[in-house]
Amino acid sequence: MENTISKEQHEAELAKFGAKVTDLESQLAAFKQKEAEAKQADRDRVIAQFCDSLQKDGAELTPKSRSLISEFMQSIAEVQEYEFSEGDGKKRETPLQRFQAIVNGGLEFMSTGEQATKDKAKTVNGTAGEKLAELAKDMMTKNPGMTFSAAFRQVQKENIELAQEYSQTLI
Predict the structure, then answer these.
(1) b/e sequence 103-140, b meaning 16+ C-beta within 10 Å
(2) CA-to-CA dists, residue 90 to 39, 80, 107, angstroms
(3) 162 Rama sector, left if φ>0, alpha if ψ -120 to 50, beta otherwise
(4) How far apart are CA 122 and CA 130, in angstroms?
């Protein structure tokens, strides 16, 4: 006895199979959508907590700053890990993790108030370059972690006449 099915039966079976495939595809799409929404909600929570942690001396971020940081963090959240050198070895992090590490531990702050004035510059003996170098060393003492070149640039901005005199010696 041969087991044969008619063309109509074959088409009916194909239609049932097609419906099952369509249903499974729909379920998979719904699952992927829920997974994406859960990831986004988790990312939103992590970013909000990070922004909340960026308080300095009891002051909170302004809404504009918080929005800018959140938008930036969202834009780099999907980028995969990359490898970079740190110290004697290599390290792998996502850009989002790297950004958080930099903000949490790598930012240095300096006073933006006037620290060196023309009157103070006159009390230092020597050429304009020597005076600027001495003022830069003083600034580095007051701002630990500041490099000499950053201090030297800052001192030149604060002592324009002295910086102009120094620039004349470079010509």
Answers:
(1) eeeeeeeeeeeebbeeebbeebeeebbebbbbbbebbb
(2) 28, 16, 22
(3) alpha
(4) 11
Distance CA 112, CA 154 (A): 9
pLDDT tens sequence across 89-148? 888 888 888 888 888 775 555 555 555 555 555 455 678 888 888 898 988 888 888 888
Cα angle 29, 76, 25 (rounded to 5 degrees) comes to 5
Residues 6 or more apart whose CB falls under 8 angstroms from that of 90 comprise 83, 84
Report residue 132 as tokens: 């600027």
- Residue 121 · residue 95 · CB < 8 Å: no
